[in-house]
UniProtKB/TrEMBL annotation:
The name this protein goes by in its record: (2Fe-2S)-binding protein
Molecular function terms, GO-annotated: 2 iron, 2 sulfur cluster binding; metal ion binding; oxidoreductase activity
UniProt cross-references to SUPFAM superfamilies, sorted A to Z: 2Fe-2S ferredoxin-like, CO dehydrogenase ISP C-domain like
Organism: Massilia horti
2Fe-2S ferredoxin-type domain boundaries: 2-78
Gene3D superfamilies linked: 3.10.20.30, [2Fe-2S]-binding domain (1.10.150.120)
Organism classification: Bacteria, Pseudomonadati, Pseudomonadota, Betaproteobacteria, Burkholderiales
């Protein structure tokens, strides 16, 4: 067992676990952050996507020992049910979720995209989200939601990506 200090959603957490424990397990089991989902456990579906620094990562295969000092952001760090973030609000307005299982991962990958490219084309969005699987078929709504959020962020840059 080792001890790790993790910056998750702007809060420091100390966890004691094995070095090879996937970050996803730490988030869900130790920190009770259940937005990121266990889908495949093989880095093939994207349901577990979170951000490590500015990059979208698959937390089901990322050992906690490799997190280092980079901050971790989960969908819970973007907003809440009472005050959803820009992307969360756009996904709600576009009715982009059906079963909702993939949506947290989609949102986190879209968040990373918008932080690096505030004006993505539809092709950019599709390419970026290609790793995230959605069996419900709301792909067009998801693309519209990311475009809606990008536009809202460009109109109100002071509000930031978390507003």
């Amino acid at each position: 067992m080792s001890t790790y200090n993790l910056d998750v959603n702007g809060h420091m957490h100390t966890v004691r676990t094995e070095p090879d424990t996937p970050l996803l397990y730490v988030l869900r089991n130790d920190l009770q952050l259940n937005g990121a989902k266990f889908g495949c456990g093989l880095a093939q579906c994207g349901a577990c996507t979170v951000m490590l620094g500015k990059e979208a990562v698959l937390s089901c295969v990322l050992p906690v020992s490799q997190v280092g000092q980079d901050p971790v952001r989960t969908v819970e760090g973007l907003g809440s049910a009472a005050a959803p973030g820009v992307l969360q609000r756009a996904f709600i307005e576009e009715q982009a979720a059906q079963c909702g299982y993939c949506i947290a991962g989609m949102i986190m990958r879209a968040q990373a995209l918008l932080e690096s490219n505030p004006s993505p084309s539809d092709a950019d969005i599709r390419h970026n989200l290609a790793i995230n699987l959605c069996r419900c078929g709301t792909h067009m709504r998801i693309v519209r939601a990311v475009q809606r959020a990008a536009e809202a962020m460009r109109r109100a840059p002071k509000a930031g990506l978390r507003a």
